[in-house]
Write a structure and sequence with these properties.
Strand content: 25-35%
Strand order of the largest sheet: 8-7-6-9-10-12-11
Order of helices and strands: EEEEEHEHEHHEHEHEHEEHHH
Structural class: alpha/beta
Bound molecules: S-adenosylmethionine
CATH superfamily of the largest domain: Vaccinia Virus protein VP39
CATH topology of the largest domain: Rossmann fold
Distance between the termini: 55 Å
CATH class of the largest domain: Alpha Beta
CATH architecture of the largest domain: 3-Layer(aba) Sandwich
Helix content: 25-40%
Length: 285
């Protein structure tokens, strides 16, 4: 008999994946954490029955949350990742030679444990030795409030605004991020679906526009997140994602990408009209 995992979204639709077996299943203090072997999408990480990562298309999300920002900032030496327990974002950040120090703050040790054992494709980078990489099992909200560090780039690779991730979409959190960003720092965040989470996008862009002189959104399409089209927010104190993006710097970085390239970089910041109707008034520059 076939076995399935089912991701239920917004109580009006669901996506069902056929699986071979469950590789890891634990209830942490924060959420249910599972890794399953699917029939068509490789291994998958689910937190509270929501798909976080699938081996089949994780490269899309991780390319797009990392490379547009790291190739806009001319000298991203110090990077902070909040969330991102599967390690895919850290993997892409650490491919950039300019990065000297990458701190990652994941609230749930079970996610890291599960991915280290069963999702080596994303989690390998989590074994990068200090001082280049440091993993903190802690609340990102608390970490950013208390840290003495200053960062060139902050990447918020979080779950949906539920439970411990709720404050990661709030005003106070972004004030703290702003304080701990260098004078030319940039923050990029998991920005939800333009179709299903228009209200969240509206609130996020409003908060960012209160703080940052440059506020943009970028989109990408993928297989895993509901509806396919998904977004990141991009807020910057100085560097502009189109004016300051340099193809020469990209060539110098000498990286091979599976989704990202220079045309995708530019195109990602072009938004469909219905999304502009929702957030366009708050985009800056
Ligand atoms: N790419 C994924 C997505 O969009 O669904 C996100 C992947 S990553 C696994 C998200 C991580 O954020 C989860 O492992 C979760 O435990 C972590 N997280 C949620 N709230 C957090 C917080 N307050 N501080 C640090 N990490 C948090």
């Amino acid at each position: 008999m076939s076995k399935f995992v089912e991701e239920r979204n917004d109580n009006f639709f669901s996506v069902r994946y056929e699986i071979d077996r469950v590789l890891y299943s634990k209830r942490s203090p924060f959420q249910k954490v599972e890794v399953v072997q699917t029939k068509g999408h490789g291994r998958m990480l689910l937190n509270d029955d929501l798909v976080m990562v699938s081996e089949r298309d994780e490269f899309v999300y991780h390319d797009m949350i990392v490379h547009p920002v790291l190739l806009t900032h001319p000298n991203p030496r110090r990077v902070l990742i909040i969330g991102g327990g599967d390690g895919g974002t850290a993997r892409e950040v650490l491919r950039h030679n300019k990065v000297e120090q990458c701190d990652m703050v994941e609230i749930d040790g079970c996610v890291v444990e599960a991915c280290r054992e069963f999702l080596p494709v994303t989690a390998e980078a989590l074994s990068t030795p200090a001082p280049r990489f440091s993993l903190h099992i802690d609340d990102g909200v608390k970490f950013i409030r208390e840290t003495k560090n200053e960062y060139d780039v902050v990447i918020v690779d979080s779950t949906d605004p539920i439970g411990p991730a709720t404050p990661l979409f709030g005003r106070e959190f972004y004030r703290d991020v702003y304080t701990h960003l260098a004078d030319d720092g940039i923050v990029v965040s998991q920005g939800e679906s333009p179709y299903y989470n228009a209200k969240t996008q509206h609130t996020m862009v409003q908060i960012l526009a209160e703080l940052f002189p440059i506020v943009r959104y970028l989109n990408f399409t993928n297989l895993t997140y509901p509806g396919g089209l998904w977004s990141f927010s991009f807020a910057s104190k100085k560097w502009h994602p189109l004016r300051d993006f340099s193809e020469e710097r990209m060539r110098e970085a000498n990286l091979k990408f599976r989704y990202y390239n220079a045309d995708i970089h530019r195109a990602a910041f072009a938004l469909p009209s219905f999304q502009l109707d929702n957030i366009g008034a708050f985009l800056k520059e």
